[in-house]
Specification:
Radius of gyration: 15 Å
CATH superfamily: Cupredoxins -  blue copper proteins
CATH topology: Immunoglobulin-like
CATH architecture: Sandwich
Helix content: 10-25%
Distance between the termini: 45 Å
Number of helices: 2
Number of domains: 1
Number of strands: 9
Order of helices and strands: HEEEEEEEEHE
Length: about 150
């Protein structure tokens, strides 16, 4: 069993190997953003900021198929974090400093899972669901417009 120091050191080394800020996948040029979410990144999980997800741990994020979605993460501690989506194949830059931000933008195509790629963080609880919204538009849908 690894010590906490070894786990933290391996996380930092993994971030350095990944380029300390280099995105793993190129983000598509999606044009205007239809839906935006803001999450605070903590080792215990992603905490929603604003709107219906405010204060929620690992909130379910939603969008209609074909919408441009932006996810902004804010580092809530001094630890390396990022955010990635499995099926949409996007990953943010890594952030280390408390208060630092990064974002990803993609076109919603399918239900998905978002998570932190830093070793040990997914297992610690940094993961949530992304779901496509079906049916007629509802003004009370989660997420906000750009800006």
């Amino acid at each position: 069993m690894k010590s906490i120091t070894a786990v933290l050191l391996s996380s930092v080394i993994a971030a350095l190997i990944a380029g300390c800020g280099g995105a793993a996948d190129t983000e598509p040029d999606t044009g205007p953003v239809d839906r935006q979410y803001r999450l605070e990144a903590l080792m215990i999980g992603y905490i929603g900021q604003g709107g219906e997800i405010d204060g929620e741990k690992n909130p379910v994020l939603r969008a209609r198929q074909g919408e441009s979605v932006e996810i902004v993460i804010v580092n809530g501690e001094r630890m390396v974090h990022d955010i990635a989506f499995r099926r949409h194949r996007v990953r943010s830059d890594t952030i280390l400093e408390h208060g630092a931000t990064t974002s990803i933008t993609f076109i919603a195509e399918t239900d998905d899972t978002y998570y932190c790629t830093i070793p040990g963080h997914l297992e610690a609880g940094m993961a949530g669901e992304f779901r496509l919204i079906e049916g007629p538009s509802d003004p009370a849908e989660a997420g906000s417009g750009p800006g």
